TrEMBL record:
Pfam families found in the cross-reference section: Chorismate_synt (PF01264)
Function: This reaction introduces a second double bond into the aromatic ring system.
InterPro entries documented for this protein: Chorismate_synth (IPR000453), Chorismate_synth_AroC_sf (IPR035904), Chorismate_synthase_CS (IPR020541)
Keyword DNA-binding: no
Protein name per UniProt: Chorismate synthase
Encoding gene per record: aroC
Coiled-coil parts of chain: none
Record: residues binding FMN: 132-134, 252-253, 297, 312-316, 338
Molecular function via GO: chorismate synthase activity; FMN binding
Length: 389
């Protein structure tokens, strides 16, 4: 069974819900580590007032007993604290009242799903679109990704993330071991390792907020400790880099993705793009560089995966852009909603989570097994085969 998940829930509804299917049995879950990932997503300089209301924790309500998965679907929920302010507006039952009491939305925000979703689903209250399209949903994806991450960690696979740039301010290449990168970025409110860049980014976020505007940036995810051969060249939808690209661009507000040197490859001759193959007794086959970001032919090549995603500035602005009221068809310019001036550091955690998920899925596809013991035996056997090659 292939690993899969679904999420449900609205940003101001009672909770987010996720169901994960296809996990092997006997995966020991560290609940504290799971909630730590949710906590990481809530942090970061530039977040708005909503994050002061929420204290995200995942409650597991199925598929786990005495600390271990049973092989059954794992169900988990993340409660929305803010719901208590929205119980009437978000009531499942019909409610009486006017547009104001229902907080009906009829002014679509440029850059959001509001107008496209309203037209597509024939909804004249755009709240029915924005409630689900909200990036709140990423809390559920981080919870799901945290489970995937724990599975990968059992096999020595580590996932890290960092902010590459915010609003055009770029961090220098960190060039450090993955554990140090994880520790250093964790201490930074903008998830960078360089203090000077951090100060500049914070100042820019503060200025942007004061201006009623928003800014985006670029985030990077690194996955180290991988075996060669996750994904496959034989079919388009088995290429793991392609799947990761889809997962990254599916994160709210993400507009692009690249691996390794990415778009820069267009400017260089092939001799400065491809990674030379080396062999030693100690390391076996390995590469002289990692410009391709860990992939050739849609398969991992044993080097760390390095993937970057670009996040556009959040479209809910205190300085709104022009739009048209769907009732009157008249232009309007003012509708102030609370928002984040910059959610790039949080998005870095979301990206780690969706990448961890895709890698775990490919890992289970390759090594299979209904229990952790079976998975481990299959993995060990493959590593032996690769070592003897
Ligand atoms: C979001 C709008 C804000 C953000 C929210 C994403 O929420 P609200 O509409 O309640 O002010 O805080 O992000 C989260 C709630 C979260 O957990 O990340 C949006 O429109 O996408």
């Amino acid at each position: 069974m292939s690993l899969r998940y679904l999420t449900a829930g609205e940003t101001h509804g009672p909770q987010l819900t996720a169901i994960i299917e296809g996990l092997p049995s006997n995966l020991e879950l560290d609940f504290e580590a799971l909630n730590f990932q949710l906590h990481r997503r809530q942090k970061g300089h530039g977040r708005g007032r909503r994050m002061q209301i929420e204290q995200d924790t995942a409650q597991i309500v199925g598929g786990v007993r005495h600390g271990k998965t049973t092989g059954a679907p794992v169900a988990l929920v993340v409660a929305n604290n803010d719901w208590k302010h929205w119980t009437s507006v978000m009531n499942i039952e019909p409610i009486s009242g006017n547009d104001e009491t229902k907080r009906r939305v009829h002014r679509p925000r440029p850059g959001h799903a509001d107008l496209n979703g309203g037209l597509k689903y024939n909804q004249t209250d755009l709240r029915n679109i924005l409630e689900r399209s909200s990036a709140r949903e990423t809390a559920a994806r981080v919870a799901v990704g945290a489970v995937a991450r724990q599975l990968l960690e059992k096999f020595g696979i580590r996932v890290a993330g960092r902010v590459v740039s915010i609003g055009g301010i770029a961090a220098p290449e960190p060039n450090m071991p993955i554990d140090e990168l994880i520790a250093r970025t964790e201490e930074s409110p903008v998830r960078v390792t360089d203090a000077e860049t951090e100060a500049k980014m914070i100042a820019l976020i503060d200025q942007t907020k004061a201006d009623g505007d928003s800014i985006g940036g670029v985030v990077e995810c690194i996955v180290a400790g991988l075996p060669v051969g996750l994904g496959s060249h034989v079919q388009w939808d088995r290429k793991l880099d392609g799947r990761i690209a889809q997962a990254v661009v599916s994160i709210n507000a993400f507009k692009g993705v690249e691996f390794g040197i990415g778009f820069e490859a267009a400017n260089r001759p092939g001799s400065q793009v491809h990674d030379e193959i080396l062999y030693s007794e100690e390391k076996g086959y390995h590469r002289a560089s990692n410009r391709l970001g860990g992939f050739e032919g849609g398969m991992t090549n044993g080097m760390p995966i390095v993937v970057r995603g670009v996040m556009k500035p959040i479209p809910t602005l205190y300085k709104p852009l022009r739009s048209v009221d769907i009732d009157t068809k008249e232009p309007f310019t003012a509708q102030v909603e609370r928002s984040d001036a910059c959610a790039v550091p949080a998005a870095s955690v979301v990206m780690e989570s969706v990448v961890a998920w895709e890698v775990a899925k490919a890992f289970l596809e390759k090594f299979g097994g209904d229990s952790m013991e079976e998975l481990q035996a299959n993995y060990d056997n493959y590593l032996r085969q690769v070592a003897e090659y």
